[in-house]
Amino acid sequence: MTGPRPAAVPDGRRAELAEGLAEVRARIAAACDAAGRDPGDVTLIAVTKTFPASDVRLLAGLGLTEVGENRDQEARPKAEACADLPLTWHFVGRLQTNKARAVAGYADVVHSVDRARLVTALSDAAGRAGRTLRCLVQVSLDEPPPQEGGGRGGAAPSAVPRLADAVAGAAHLELGGVMAVAPLGADPLPAFARLAEVAEAVRRDHPSATVLSAGMSGDLEEAVACGATHLRVGTALLGGRRAIVR
Ligand SMILES: *Cc1c(COP(=O)(O)O)cnc(C)c1O
């Protein structure tokens, strides 16, 4: 049974998304099979950046509950437009401290905590909003490791334990685990293996920090092989993104 749908949504879009979802689910199942893992232990986050709120609505209708966005300007109105849906919003992009307050208003999980100043800003913002924010420490897998606040985002592995402690100790934050993006142009497998070691070290100090967010459209198999619990998939689900002209 299908309900009424907004006229602006092309009829084929739902079928397209259903097909993308089936393909991604099949890839996850195969990767879990190869790794001897239970697919139930892997959560799929649909990264809907550059796609309209109508797509988020269609994905929710197909049973997806986790949505990821990487820019506040785009995420905020989209989350508002979908406020009636039972969704968990993941903020996965680089985050400036001056956006912390806005993001703490709608995000449930922030994947990109990579410096101490951001921990303070997010905790203050969450407190003001009367919320608790789940945070992941973003780990840079680039070689050589970046300076604080430099590179493409993410803290150097050596800085991660201290940041994890800071998140865990912040009044309005909860430490969920770690996140990373594979280095550009490098084999993702050794990078994700390194990430798994960092994740394990964090879990030793913080046993409830079990989230390992890794793997995108091009490398979800390698991420599953290395123990990823959360995959952030855009293109393989929603199709190619057009260049953002803004
Ligand atoms: C865009 C994005 C993704 C999804 O990338 P795809 O290759 O389209 O699957 C995942 N993680 C982050 C941080 C992103 O910015």
From TrEMBL:
Domain of life of the native organism: Bacteria
Pfam families: Ala_racemase_N (PF01168)
The UniProt record lists the keyword Magnesium: no
Primary role: Pyridoxal 5'-phosphate (PLP)-binding protein, which is involved in PLP homeostasis.
Organism expressing this protein natively: Actinomadura graeca
NCBIfam families in UniProt: YggS family pyridoxal phosphate-dependent enzyme (TIGR00044)
Official protein name in the record: Pyridoxal phosphate homeostasis protein
Domain annotation Alanine racemase N-terminal: ranges: 24-241
